[in-house]
């Protein structure tokens, strides 16, 4: 398996390519990875069309949920979107927080940042900004955000512990997040776990559902709630790119589940430092 730096470079390159594709090329794939299926479309994505602030030009079809819909954003809030892509969730968040709030999108890929900035300029939004950076070390000061959202991005981060610690650091005391992500119940076949394309496709980087919740808990968050859960079906024509027919049959029989979950959690009001293990 690749090193963390190699995995990040895979993601940077792949999502740089995706930034130049249209939505139709992305929604027929698993999280925009390009592993297109003839059996099903919209493998992971949910429909943003009914949400205020939605802008089709900013929707590349890369998500696996609607975290901004569940994020309890109030007027005047500071909202940060992790893995902001072309700006889709940022613009929906901006409709919620209004002109008195602020929205910051963070993305690892220069081409995505450029695309998002162009979209924001077209919309005339002066309280939405995009910063290039690694969500394992965010380019944001501590205790600044009321709300953090993210849509099918944390599974792409090799060090998920670092990401949740950063989320804790950046949220204000009492602030909260709503994150949509891919999680597992059971084990993926080794050939899937080791495939770079499936990592970029939001599957191979997913961790166990119980481990995901536990990671949030040990970081120091409270009021952890699963706001939505849906199963993700990987069709045979995608699996057959990596597995033999017998291996596909064995995977189906294993009972392994792939799920999109949207999870809410809150930083305690009394939080006075960067996390549960930094206070003396």
Please explain how this structure is put together:
The protein has 280 residues and is α/β, with parallel strands linked by helices. It has one domain: 3-Layer(aba) Sandwich (Rossmann fold), CATH 3.40.50.150. 32% of the residues lie in helices and 21% in strands. The chain has helices at residues 4-18, 23-27, 88-97, 110-123, 160-170, 190-193, 196-200, 209-219, 236-239, 245-254, and strands at 78-82, 102-107, 128-132, 145-151, 171-185, 207-208, 222-231, 257-266. The longest helix has 15 residues, at 4-18. The protein is globular and about 55 Å long.
Features:
alpha/beta, globular, 8-stranded mixed sheet, single chain, 21% strand, 280 residues, 32% helix
What are the SSEs and their pairings?
Elements: H1 4-18, H2 23-27, E1 78-82, H3 88-97, E2 102-107, H4 110-123, E3 128-132, E4 145-151, H5 160-170, E5 171-185, H6 190-193, H7 196-200, E6 207-208, H8 209-219, E7 222-231, H9 236-239, H10 245-254, E8 257-266
């Amino acid at each position: 398996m690749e090193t963390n730096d190699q995995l990040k470079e895979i993601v940077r390159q792949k999502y740089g390519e995706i930034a130049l594709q249209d939505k139709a090329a992305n929604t027929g794939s698993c999280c925009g990875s390009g592993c297109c299926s003839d059996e099903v479309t919209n493998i992971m994505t949910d429909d943003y069309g009914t949400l205020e602030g939605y802008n089709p030009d900013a929707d590349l079809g890369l998500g696996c949920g609607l975290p901004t819909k569940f994020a309890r954003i109030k007027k005047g809030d500071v909202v940060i979107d992790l893995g902001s892509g072309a700006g889709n969730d940022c613009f929906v968040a901006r409709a919620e927080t209004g002109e008195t709030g602020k929205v910051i999108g963070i993305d690892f890929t220069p081409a995505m940042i450029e695309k998002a900035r162009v979209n924001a300029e077209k919309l005339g939004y002066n309280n939405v900004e995009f910063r290039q950076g690694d969500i394992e070390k965010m380019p944001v000061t501590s205790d600044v955000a009321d709300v953090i959202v993210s849509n099918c991005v944390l599974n792409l981060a090799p060090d998920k512990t670092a990401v949740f610690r950063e989320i804790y650091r950046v949220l204000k005391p009492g602030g909260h997040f709503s994150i949509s992500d891919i999680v597992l119940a059971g084990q993926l076949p080794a050939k899937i776990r080791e495939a770079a394309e499936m990592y970029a496709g939001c599957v191979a980087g997913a961790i166990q559902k119980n481990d995901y919740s536990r990671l949030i808990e040990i970081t120091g968050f409270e009021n952890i709630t699963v706001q939505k859960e849906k199963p993700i079906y990987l069709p045979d024509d995608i699996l057959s790119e990596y597995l033999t027919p017998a291996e596909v049959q064995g995977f189906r029989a294993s009972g392994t589940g792939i799920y999109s979950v949207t999870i809410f959690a809150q930083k305690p009001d009394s939080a006075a430092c960067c996390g549960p293990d930094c206070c003396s």
